[in-house]
Amino acid sequence: MSVVCFEKCLSIGYNSFNHIKLDYDPVFIRETEELNTIIAKYLSQAKPAK
To answer: Is the pTM here over 0.85, yes or no?
Structure first.
């Protein structure tokens, strides 16, 4: 369920990938294959920072 909610956040525009990497809250799902696949998907779609 938490991975589904996480993907929903990314789908509506949340893109602070550095925060995702360092934040303590999602530590229990951070290393799952499912979450890493979702993050890779949205990283590939992310616009470069100006």
So the answer is: no
